[in-house]
């Protein structure tokens, strides 16, 4: 099993990263602000183009440590790669499946079933925690998604699957505002808005999804799969289609729940967001730091994997699912087992 390693997020505009003996070092204004063993970091994510020393970049390239550059809102810009060491036979099998709708459907169907199941689990969790004041709309949406799970498992085309996915997402996001139990006036959520996010809750979600897809992308590359070639999301230049596929399993667990906790526990507030003239809502530095801290803390928590029955940190889940997907594509297991929220 792959050792669980951490991601180093660099948000300061004045940061400079370099290698000092067997450690990573981050300096701001020529002062050392962070130092960690080189083998404790798996990914470096920079918000904006930060300065990295040549020796550090060489080490990352040689040791499969990913370096990603994102905009302040989390939008992906670029990724620095070392020599590609992916298994060419595994990738050939992946490409063959992607070209065949029936074979693609065999992977996409359980992924979307898990996504809808996990959405529904979040609504049912709210219902259990608030039995006396859970709105009828939440209960009805959970019931509808429960019925749609059977349709998803029996659908016969990718277009049909996308239709059920879209319907369930509409029901889910239509009642997500009811799961915000504090600061309701400051964090209204009427619908999912992406490009750009038009309210603070959507800004949090978009940022969380951006760093989550980056983690999934790195996990897929580690096992030798091509993150650009998916089975549900259509192939498009520059789009990490497979990473977006696998990410679907984790949206509720590693995205939405963190967003809700940040708001409901008052770890962020209205003052942590900036509204631009275009209507786009951006997060402040304090909000980004609070979110990244919560995300990293969440990744350190332990769960028992629903398929493997093994205890592991939550941050290891994308790596485990990437390994299971690779095993399925190679023909080592009969079905791909997605991640289900317990």
Rough outline: globular
Q: What pattern of helices and strands is seen along the backbone?
A: EEEEEEHEEHHHHHHHEEHEEH
Overall mean pLDDT: 87
Based on DSSP secondary structure assignment, what is the total number of beta strands? 12
Could you say what the CATH architecture of the largest domain is? Up-down Bundle
Tally of discrete structural domains: 2
Secondary structural class: alpha/beta
For the terminal residues, how far apart are their CA atoms? Answer: 22 Å
State the major sheet.
Answer: 4 strands, mixed
Cα radius of gyration in angstroms? 20 Å
Q: What is the H level of CATH, i.e. the homologous superfamily of the largest domain?
A: CRISPR-associated endonuclease Cas1, C-terminal domain
User: According to CATH, what is the class of the largest domain?
Assistant: Mainly Alpha
Helix tally equals 10
The fraction of residues in strands falls at 15-25%
CATH topology of the largest domain: Four Helix Bundle (Hemerythrin (Met), subunit A)
Strand order of the largest sheet: 1-5-7-8
Unreliable sequence segments: none
Helix fraction? Answer: 40-55%
């Amino acid at each position: 099993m792959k050792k669980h390693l951490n991601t180093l997020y660099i948000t300061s505009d004045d940061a400079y990263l370099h290698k000092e003996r067997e450690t990573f070092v981050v300096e701001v204004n020529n002062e050392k602000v962070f130092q960690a063993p080189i083998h404790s970091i798996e990914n470096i994510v920079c918000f904006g183009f930060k300065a990295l020393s040549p020796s550090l970049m060489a080490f990352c390239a040689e040791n499969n440590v990913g370096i990603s550059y994102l905009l302040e809102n989390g939008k992906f810009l670029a990724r620095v790669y070392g020599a590609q060491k992916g298994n060419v036979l595994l990738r050939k099998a992946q490409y063959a499946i992607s070209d065949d709708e029936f074979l693609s459907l065999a992977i996409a169907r359980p992924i979307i079933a898990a996504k809808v199941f996990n959405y529904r689990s979040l609504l049912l969790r709210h219902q259990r925690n608030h039995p006396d004041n859970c709105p009828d709309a939440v209960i009805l949406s959970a019931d509808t998604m429960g019925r749609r799970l059977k349709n998803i498992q029996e659908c016969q085309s990718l277009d049909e699957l996308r239709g059920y996915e879209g319907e369930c997402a509409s029901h889910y996001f239509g009642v997500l505002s009811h799961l915000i139990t504090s600061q309701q006036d400051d964090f209204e959520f009427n619908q999912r808005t992406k490009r750009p996010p038009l309210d603070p809750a959507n800004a949090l979600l978009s940022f969380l999804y951006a760093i989550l897809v980056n983690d999934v992308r790195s996990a897929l590359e580690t096992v030798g799969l091509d993150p650009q070639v998916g089975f549900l999301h259509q192939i498009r230049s520059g789009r990490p289609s497979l990473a977006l596929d696998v990410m679907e399993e984790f949206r509720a667990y590693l995205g939405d729940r963190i967003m809700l906790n940040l708001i409901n526990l008052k770890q962020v507030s209205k003052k942590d967001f900036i509204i631009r003239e275009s209507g786009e809502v951006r997060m402040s530095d304090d909000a980004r730091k609070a979110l990244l801290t919560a995300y990293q803390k969440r990744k350190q928590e332990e769960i028992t994997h629903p398929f493997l029955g093994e205890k592991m940190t939550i941050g290891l889940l994308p790596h485990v699912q990437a390994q299971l997907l690779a095993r399925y594509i190679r023909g080592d297991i009969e079905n791909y087992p997605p991640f289900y929220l317990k």
